[in-house]
Amino acid sequence: MKRKIKNLPKIIWKSGILSWILLLVIWTVAASFQSPDFLPGPKATLAGLKEIIASGVLWQDIRISIWRVVNGWLRGLLIGIPLGLLIGRYKVARELMEPILNFFRFVPSIGFLTLFLMWFGVGEESKLALIMYASVFPVIINTAAGVQRIDPVKYQASESLGANRFWSFITVTIPASVPGIFTGVRLGLSASIISIVGAEMLAASDGVGYLIYTSKLYFRTDWIFVGIVTLGTLGFLADRGLRFFASKALKHYGAV
């Protein structure tokens, strides 16, 4: 018991609670010098949160946004991971794909919104395509980088045991590149959440991004802050969930 009490300050520091308290203090102080219409404080934002929750709109928007993010992100993973493995492992694939990747990864996903609306319509497919586009590049780049960091000795050991190139790819490349893949997965999720805001602001009638966009029509800055806090919370919890999964399922591969 005494040991737990002695380590309490260290536990609190590692938990990150002090960071949140500091942020709330800075936010409260800054808001006290401004009008609530310009910069609502934590209390005003909490009041706006209660109002939106009471209307039932927030939970529906959260559910829709999560569905879009997860679907677009998973599509990005299905494309990005195999491409990243091939680009990292095989020189021909790398020389063929790198120029294209280095061109398109600097084009913001929101720049394709109009095209996606024309190609896929105003329904869900255009938004999912936008999220997939945003998430696929971090996955490809980090997966390829993870493959290229593999020690060549591992391939030599595999081949000395009789493995051909295919089995060397299966038994060495994929397991050894898990840390890079996991980094790409996390960054891809972050990019997905960022892109959903733009997609819902410009081409949706629901979702958290739409809530943020339409709040300006009612001059409800507190609702805008509710949307921002909601997105940050969702992203924070999703990342923590991924890290927890990796600590249990991927620890053997050095993903965390």
| Rounded mean pLDDT score | 86
**Spans where pLDDT lies below 50 across 5 or more residues:** none
Q: Tally of extended strands?
A: 0
- Largest sheet entry: none
Strand content: under 5%
Order of helices and strands: HHHHHHHHHHHHH
Shape: globular
Give the helix level as a range of percent.
over 70%
Structural class: mainly alpha
Give the radius of gyration: 22 Å
Alpha-carbon distance between the two ends: 30 Å
| Secondary structure tally, helices | 13
Report on the structure:
With 256 residues, the chain is mainly α. The chain is built from 13 helices and no strands. The chain has helices at 2-6, 8-15, 17-32, 42-55, 57-89, 91-104, 113-120, 124-148, 152-160, 165-176, 178-203, 208-215, 221-249. Helix 7 (113-120) packs across helix 8. The two termini are 30 Å apart. The model has no long low-confidence stretch (mean pLDDT 86).
For this entry, give a set of tags.
mainly alpha, single chain
Helix and strand arrangement:
Blueprint: H1 2-6, H2 8-15, H3 17-32, H4 42-55, H5 57-89, H6 91-104, H7 113-120, H8 124-148, H9 152-160, H10 165-176, H11 178-203, H12 208-215, H13 221-249
Helix pairs in contact: 4-13, 5-6, 5-8, 5-11, 5-12, 7-8, 8-11, 9-10, 11-12, 11-13, 12-13
